[in-house]
Structure formats: C-alpha cells, structure tokens
Amino acid sequence: MLAKRIIPCLDVCEGSTVKGIHFENLRKVGDPVDLGARYADEGADELVYLDISASHEGRATFTDLVRRIAARINIPFTVGGGIRSVDDASRLLDAGADKITVNTAAVYNPDLISELAAKYGSQFVVVAIDARRNENGQWQATTHGGRRCSHLELFSWARRAVDLGAGEILFTSMDHDGTGGGYPIEVYARLAELPVPVIASGGAGNAAHIAEVLTRGRADAALAAGIFHFGTLTIPQVKDYLKAQGIPIRTNN
Question: Which of 41, 185, 210, 248 is deepest in the core (most CB within 10 A)?
Fold first, then answer.
C-alpha cells in the first residue's frame, strides 16, 4: 500500500475560509493564508483551496490570494474555482499553485481537461466532481458549487475525465459534506478502479472515518475540512491514529 495523504480543504468565499453542511449555511472559520500555514506546520501533506463562489458569481479565482499562499507555505497546494481556460490556469500556476482543479467548466467543456493536460501534464490537472444521489439512486454530478444539477453520472464522468487527461479525481459527496457521519465507502471503492489517484471528500467526523476510506474505500488521499477548522482533531492526531492502525502515511516533520 502506497503512503496515504492527508489534505485539509479550505473553501474560500469573499476572501474568508468558510464551512457549511451540504454546501449551505456557510460559517466563516478564518483567514485562508493563516490557516493554510498552520496546517502546513502541523504536517499536512497538501492543501486544497477552492473558491466556491467563483463559478456561481462568474469571476476568476483571486490570483493575489494564491501568491500570498505560495509565499507562506512550503507544501504543495491545489487551487480551483472559476477556471474556464488554459489562460486562467496559467495565471494561477504562475502565481505559485502546484496543481489546479476544474469542475464546472470541465462539465460544460470537457476538452478543457485535454487542453490543460497537453500544456502542463496530467499530474497538474485535478478534476473535482461534486455529486449527490438523485431520486433514482444514481450519483449525479453538479456544477456551480453544487447549485445546479448536470446530466452526468458520477462514475461515467470520472472515467471520461481520466480518459481526457485528468491526473487525479477529487470526489465530494454532497450528501455527506459537513455531516461528520463518515464517507460513502462503497463509492470510493468503486472509484478506486480508476487508473489515477482518488481523493475522498465529504463526511469526515473522526480519525476512524479517515482510516476507513483509506483502507476499505481504497482512496489515495483523504480530504477534510470541518474536523480541522473547528478543532475536533489536529493533523498529528489523525496521522498518529492512522499509523497505529498500520496505514502507511507520509511524514513531513
């Protein structure tokens, strides 16, 4: 088993880190640069910054924020939100981001994935999929920060994204987001059949949930937000638990 990654996620809205439940009722939890620096010092393997209102409001991700993050932290970080073109991605990578993630724009223009991979390589391209179960029990991908339903089914869209050049898949279960009730394990176990790393997001409430999605769910990395933002657990506590369970983890400090 390859070493697993622990990735705090910082959802950014109007310059502040926020956290909600099912993508709603957002609460401000701190400055994104200060929080990111703290998580890096605690031993996070990577960070993900998502400007969650960018696609909905029709504006680009704040490049200045990316510059400030790059100046403060010394671990890789991924940035997404409002990326509609190769030029948008170039601006963020030039500002210091290590990877970019696309969601809404890729749904409406799948060729964007290929264009990004052709210019920068698949290892720089993360395709994020926010999905919820519909009335038929299928996982339906959404866009615009979960505000709109697409016609795409999770598993088929994930496979197509990889075929187009995605180097990683970041799946967030909107049904589990912010609930602290655990990840949908069976979904990640199925996504693990993809030939690229899968990042699990949505539902972490304790270290056992993270261990479960990394073992039974076979995810390559666990992304979490609320448990870190609200002080439920620290990154060292999560890593100590995983180590005690015999799960290989990265050591940064």
Answer: 210
